[in-house]
Each structure stands twice: as structure tokens, then as C-alpha cells.
Amino acid sequence: MIVYILCFILFLVGLYGVITRRNLIKIAISLSIMEFSIFLILVLIGYIENGLAPIVDASGSAQIYVDPLPQAMVLTAIVIGLATTAMLMAIAIRLYRKYKTFDIREIKNLRG
Amino acid sequence: MEALIPLFVAIPLIAAFLIVVFGKLFKGFHRFLAPLTLLILLCMAVFEFTGLGENSIPYAMGGWIGKEGLPLGIYLVLDGFSVLMLCIINLIGLIALFYSLSYIAKYTAENNYYALFCLIIAGMNGVVLSGDLFNLFVFLEVSVISSYALVAFGVGKTELEASFKYQVLGGLASMLILLAIGLIYWQTKTLNIADIRKVFEGGYSASFYLFVQVLLIAGFGLKAAIIPFHAWLPDAHSSAPSPISAMLSGVLIKAVGIYVLIRLFFNMFVFSQEIALVLTTLGAISMVVGSLLAIVQWDLKRLLAYSSISQVGYVVMAMGMGILLLLRGNNEAAAILAIGGALYHMINHAVFKGLLFLNAGSLEHRLDTRNLREMGGLSKAMPITSTTSFMASMSISGLPPFNGFFSKLIIIIAAINGRFYLLATLAVIVSIITLAYFLKFQRYAFYNKAAETATQKIKEVPFPMSFSMIFLAALCLALSLLAIPSVSETILSPAIDALIQPEIYSTTILGL
Predict the structure, then answer these.
(1) Which residues of chain B does A27 touch, with a Cβ-Cβ cutoff of 8 Å?
(2) Do residue A73 and residue B134 have CB atoms under 8 angstroms apart?
(3) Structural domain harbouring B275
(4) Is A110 in contact with B161 (Cβ distance < 8 A)?
(5) Which of B42, B57, B91, B461 is at a distance of 20 to 30 A from B2, taking alpha carbons?
(6) What is the pairing mode between strands B57-60 and B75-78?
């Protein structure tokens, strides 16, 4: 149970960062933190007490294996997360070239 | 028939790859390949549509066919609702792409634009076809990430800012969706939508169920820009290049937002009173607030973006109403009317909002401004843009004989039949407000006589742009025919049946 609570705290840390930070890069990092807390939860979902890595060999069939599907899901989600982070960073760098700052208080053309 | 289903995703993916690799080597390669791809996809979608009827066809990816009612691999499912969405996506995509041929020439890196366009189509086709929750999430990210890049395509100050905002909120939405998918897998040990329904029908813990539904409403509501989650939409949709705005507003928010919400709440979850009330309320709020925010805008594309929020509100409200009526059980005719009205309005909105954004693009192309105060007297100088935008404006504000009138009328009749008098009144009032701000657009852009002398030199837009606008305007009139019962029976009824009879959806997939 404690692990799930820690995951949730990690999620809240990320959310706090997204809401309060004023630096574009820090916002991106906070988003990544949130993302990884969710990946952790996904991995935990597939975990079974005393389970082995799900590699079936010829000898034994009586072992307990952890659920491999959430692991495959997390691998896919990590790749997607990489793409979003790269995209976010590219935009942040282009913004820096235009405004010469990472501060979101000075980047506010769009309102209403 | 069945073999064509994976091609809806594969063809645009291959086209995007080829455009990136060969686009720089052969001049004009991307301008030829991308429209051809979309044309092929549209023909395939129409072919599937004519052959499908009331069936739903599952396709097991990689030949992983399930055993004894347990699905093994990933399924793509083609049914009445998804084939309808496929037709809209590829039709609006083809028109927007044809329009881009002359519009996008002013930007650099043209081939990247066409490659991203093909990717966005691939992602949306995947979302619409997927019968597997996690696979749906992956396709959703494909289309949404390419839309982040396309919003920032102009790399000006506002474009980049809008794209950053869109990405932060879109990233949040994706996380909520991923968390919900994880939790659903935890409880049901399956990711197949039909199989999940079977598990839920066997019983579920109420608090878990509600939590997951709220997470999904927040996640897909962010993607669909329903009102409390709408902050990114006006920025992103007004900053993107105009054909992309037409794609985002016309198709993307429906394919990755509304479509998924409808699909999950009709075919995956068992109906529940609370969630139906939440959907109806959110829809009604975004309908009213979106139109009130639109009326004060002076930036033309922002006005159109806010009006998208308001029109999407109609669709969500009518869907929620449909669920409420189905739950009540004594008035199924009204429920079918509400759901049919929602689907009809969704198709119509794709057409006229696409057309309006293309009009805005033509004005921006000739005048280099989006501010309504700087336009005026253009009705003589740009007759085609003026006429088509007039038709689209009348259509969106619900004046006969255009399609918007009939879909709104159907929704209002359904509301009155189901005794939702407040919602019916709101729908009428919002329709009048819509008319007000589109008359403002017409007057300031085309009929303000004072500015006429200054605009003498402005010419009509080139052929690809004017042809796309005329085509969509004709479609605005032609879609009115869907109001005729016999026509709507062949086109809308399969989609409605797929939604209100979830047992059929699940049995065809699990019975493989």
C-alpha cells in the first residue's frame, strides 16, 4: 500500500510543479515527473507477490509470474512520453530564441 | 472488405514516411502524393460505407484470433459509427489538403507539413477503428503529437506560445487517460472494449467505476475542449495555419474527443444516471458559455474557435440527453432522435466549421490580418469567399434550408419530446446568439461600405482554395437531405444502432 501512496505523492509533486513553476523547462520536467509516477502505477498493477520475470522455459510450469502486459504498455508509453518531451523541449527552445527568456510571465501574447 | 481495415492506418503512415524520405529529392513529390493518399482513403471509406450496412466487422491484427470468447490480440473494429467517422475525417482531410496546395506555399519546409498531415490522418483513423483501449491511446498520441507540431508550424511568437500551452494541457489529458486505462486493466484484466463491457455487466464496485468514468471524462473532455477544460482551444485553433485549423476544429476534437467519449460511454460502460447528468450539464454549459465568449471576439479565428466549443456542446448535450432517455426507458423514440441529432450535428459541424476556417484562411491570405476591424467591403472583391462564408454562417446559425437548421431542429424536438424544456430553450437561445456573432463577422468582413475604397486591389483567392470552399458550401446544402427519413435511415441508422445496442457490438467481437 505504501508504494501506491508514494506514487500518488510523486504525481502530486509533478502537478504542483506544473501549476507553480514559471520556467518553461521546469514545467516540462514537472510534466515528466507526473508521467513517470503514472508509469510506476502501471508497473505496480502488473506486479504479483513473489512473481518471477515472465519467461516460460521447458522445465517448470508451476511458478508464479508477474503480469507482462502492463510492462509492455509502460514500454510503449515511455516511447510516447519521449516523443512528447522532445516536442515540448523543441518548442521551449524556439520560444527562448524569440523572447530571450524562459519566464512564462513575459510570454503572454494570447489572452481572452 | 475486412482486408481493407488495417490499410486505413497503414497507407497514410507509409505516405508520411515516403514524403519525408523522397520529398526533398523530387520536386513536387509531396504535393502529388499526399492528396492522392487522401483520395484513396476517401474512396476506401465510401466503399466500406456502402458495403457495411448494419454489420460490424472485427479484424484481428497479426492473425491473433481469440478463443472461446476471450480476445487475444488487438482488434480493429469497423461498425456503423466508425465508418461514418472515417468518411468525415478523410473527406475534410482531402478538402483541407487540396486547399493547402496554394495556401501553404508561403511557408518553408513544405514536405514536413504534408508528412505531418498524413500522420494526423493515420492517428485519427486508428482512434476511430481501434477496438482496444491501449491501442486507442497510442493512436490518439500519434495524431495529437503531430497536431502539436502543426499548430507551431508558423514558428512565430503566438504560434509557439499556443503550441506550448496546448502541449502542457494535452500532456495532462493523456496522463489522466493513461491512468484510467491502467485502472480499468487492473479491475478487469483485459483491454478489449467489448470484453471490458462483458466484465462490467457481471458487476463492479461502484466507487471504482465512478472514479474511472470521471478520469475519462476529464481526459477526453480536455481533448474535446468541453467548457471547464477549454483553455487551450482558442489559442491553438486560431494560431495554426488555416487548413490545419479546419482539421483541428472540424475533425480532430471530434475524432479524439467526442467520438471516444461516445464510444466508451455507450459501448464499454453500462449506462449510469450520474454520468449522463454530468455529460448533459457539461454540454449545456459549454454551449452557452462558448457562444457568450465568442460574441466579444474581434480576432476572426478566435471567434470561430469559441464557436466550435459552443457547437461541440450541442453534440455532448444531445448525447447525454440520449443516455438519460434510454435509462428512463419509456421513450425510446426520443432517445434515438437525440442520438441521431447529435451524430447529424457532428457531421454538419465538421463541414461548416471546416468551411468557415477555410474562409478565414482566404481572408488572411489576401489581407494578412485576422482582425475584423481591419477588414470591410470585401463582398465585391472576393465574391466566392463572401458567398461561401455567408452560406456557412447561415448554416451554423441554424437557418433553413441549410444543414445546421435541421440538425439543431432535431436536437430541440428530441429535448421537447423528452421533457427537457430548459435545455430546449437554451438550445434556441444559443442558436440566436450564434446568429448574432456570425452576422457581426459578415458585416465587418464583407459589407462595411466605408472601407471599400481601400480594398479595390484585393483579388479572389487562387483556384485550389476557391474550389475547396465551393465544394464544402455545396456540401452544406446537400447534407440537408439527411433530414429526410429515408435518407437518414441508410446513413445514420447503422451508427445509431451500433450505439444503442451494445450487446451486438460485444458479441460480434467476442464471437470470433
Answers:
(1) 168
(2) yes
(3) 2-510
(4) yes
(5) B91
(6) antiparallel
> For B285-329, what is the HEC assignment?
HHHHHHHHHHHCCCEHHHHHHHHHHHHHHHHHHHHHHHHHHHHHC
Percent helix, strand, coil in chain B, to 5, is: 80, 5, 15
Query: What is the rounded average pLDDT for all residues in chain B?
Result: 89
* Interchain contact, B182 vs A38, CB within 8 Å: yes
User: How many domains would you assign to chain B?
Assistant: 1
Smallest CA-to-CA distance from B506 within B262, B213, B254, B200 is with: B200
Mean pLDDT of B8-28: 90
A6-20, B311-325, B440-454: segment of lowest average pLDDT: B440-454
In angstroms, the CA B331 to CA B255 distance is 29
Position B449 pLDDT exceeds 70: no
C-beta atoms of A110 and B162 within 8 A: yes
The Cα-based distances of B282 to B74, B215, B403, B415 in angstroms read 33, 15, 25, 16
Compare CB distances from B178 to A77, A98, A110 and report the shortest one's residue.
A77
3-state secondary structure B180-229: HHHHHHHHHCCCEHHHHHHHHHCCCCHHHHHHHHHHHHHHHHHHHCCHHH
Q: B288, B293, B143, B269: which is closest to B217 by C-alpha?
A: B269
Nearest CA in chain A to B145: A84
Q: What is the ipTM of this complex?
A: 0.94
The pTM for the full model equals 0.93
**Contacting residues of B for A109, CB less than 8 Å apart:** 157-158, 161
Considering only alpha carbons, which residue of chain A is nearest residue B142? A80
The pLDDT of residue B128 is 93
Q: What share of chain A is helix, strand, coil (3-state, %, to 5)?
A: 65, 5, 30
**Cβ-contact B427, B314 below 8 angstroms:** yes
Q: What letter would DSSP give residue B460?
A: P
Residue ranges of domains in chain A: 2-48+66-99
Q: Which CATH class is domain A2-48+66-99?
A: mainly alpha
Task: Kindly list the residues from chain A whose CB atom is less than 8 angstroms away from the CB atom of residue B71.
Answer: none
- Contact residues on chain A for B168, CB-CB shorter than 8 A: 18, 27, 31, 88
Instruction: Say which residues have a Cβ less than 8 Å from residue B364's Cβ, sequence separation at least 6.
Output: B242, B300, B301, B370
